[in-house]
Amino acid sequence: MKVRTSPCARARGARVTVRKLDAAWREVYRYPARVLWRGPQSVTVAAIFQMPTMRVGGLLLATGDCFVETYYANRWYNILAVYAQAEGRLRGWYANIGEPLPWTAAEIAYRDLALDLVVRADGRQVVLDEAEFAALPLADTERRRAQQALQAVRRRFRGLCAAMA
Questions:
Q1: Which of 25, 99, 124, 126 would bridge 57 by S-S if both were Cys, CB 3.0 to 4.6 A apart?
Q2: Helices then strands (H, E): number in the chain?
Q3: Residue 131 lies in a domain
Q4: Is residue 123 assigned to a domain?
Q5: Is residue 1 part of a domain?
Q6: Structural domain boundaries enclosing 59
């Protein structure tokens, strides 16, 4: 088996801080990342997963794994591609449904609205935290946008995984 390097090992872009806020606008956590690409409507960064190893929706997230994360200015979701630390193999994707917030050159932030989508490397999709989302005190427009974002990202991955098969 050919060993690949993780995208994080090759990341040389500007340093940024990524901040996750909960639905009540409180900071949940922050972590460092490096910019891989920045465009007018999106930014992609590479970050090392620093939390304890866990399995979420069947997707292994191991301490030290590389996350290549894309944030959008005009979409109510962000997508994290998860690469195994050791061999750089794609494990799958994790999509957060959340409100996009304005970025700066030094910071990317988003307001997480609980709903998540895990897409395994074999294309299987698992929606997480639907009960938590239902319990959030959101305005009707926020709830509708979040639900539309979940459907949009599910369609996006159905197409991507079909093309990869």
A1: 126
A2: 3, 10
A3: yes
A4: yes
A5: no
A6: 7-164
Number of domains in the chain: 1
What angle (nearest 5°) sits at the alpha carbon of residue 89, between those of residues 86 and 95?
A: 115
- Amino acid type, 37: W
When pLDDT is cut at 50, 70 and 90, the band that residue 164 belongs to is low
Question: Rounded to whole angstroms, how far apart are CA atoms 55 and 75?
Answer: 26
Cβ burial 129-146 (10 Å sphere, 16+ → b, else e) = beeebeebebeeebeebb
Q: What CATH number should be reported for the domain holding residue 65? A: 2.40.380.10
| Cα distance between residue 54 and residue 57, in whole Å | 10
- Contact assessment for residue 90 and residue 81, using Cβ atoms and an 8 Å cutoff: yes
Exposure string (b/e) for 72-97, b if CB count within 10 Å is 16 or more? beebbbbbbbbbbbeebeebbbbbbb
pTM of the model: 0.92
Q: Residue 108 in 3-state DSSP?
A: strand
